[in-house]
Known about the structure:
By secondary structure, the protein is an all-alpha fold. It has two domains: 1-58; 68-295, MetI-like fold (Orthogonal Bundle). 69% of the residues lie in helices and 0% in strands. It contains 14 helices and no strands. The protein has helices spanning 7-38, 42-46, 60-65, 69-100, 108-117, 125-134, 152-163, 167-175, 180-188, 193-208, 212-217, 226-236, 247-256, 260-295. Helix 4 (69-100) packs antiparallel against helix 10. The longest helix has 36 residues, at 260-295.
Amino acid sequence: MTIKSSVGSRIFDILNYTFMIIMMAITVYPFLNVFAISVSGHYYVSSGMVGIIPKGFNIEMYKLLLRTEEVLISYKNTVLYAAVGTAIMLFLNSIYAYTLSKPDLPAKGIITVYLAVTMFFSGGLIPTYLTIRALGGINTFWVMVLPFSVSAWTIIVMRTFFQGIPYSLTESALMDGAGELAILSRLIIPLSKPLYATMALFAVVGIWNSWFNAIIYLTDNYKWPIQAILRHISVIGKILTKESNNDALRQAAAEANIIPQSYKYAMMMIVIIPIVALYPFFQRYFIKGVMIGAIKG
Length: 297
């Protein structure tokens, strides 16, 4: 049987599709413009003739950047920060959320309120910096992955998801002699793949896009993540290849006639592409993980 749409429903659909197309264009246009400028010829970029279609194909800026020591080292740093930080975040938040999901947990309400308060109030930048310095975390690898690995929002979402898993399964495992860690690792986590994929994506994107913490807590530029290098190029206008210790690279930079805008936009694309390429692998879990963790109180 065919259900006829009303006039109001059709008007709503038209307006909805129109709005979504406009929002998509607003979102996609800057990305296409950055890509087009990064691979266009110097003359067209300098003349401001590039929109979303490249003109005069040129990838010299990519070649120079991908040969620059600072870029390669910062890429390695970022991958390590993202991998280790995501693993630690999932581990710590899982334990907290699983404990909080137990229906017989003593003082559960007080713990939940204490957790929720941290979402609205914090010590601030200066006390945080002083605490990290007192603990010896300044200019270390761990300062980029440990201090911000526990998130109240993540714990609440994970707790809500865990509460949707029948508690009878946990009770059966306890009766069979399984411990709490065994239940979490062998029962809860396998049943929560959409949740973990979503939280992992959030964590990776958050760490990948982080630059402020590196500027504040890392004094050694060779420990910086890729976003901090991008900031130096895009905001300060630093041309890494011209200051390189590699004579061949400096010579190549001089011969390439670097256009700062192309150089900056090529660096943006180098930073953006890996994280954009990662999203399709998580897409099928993304919506399900967020919705399941949100609709149950």
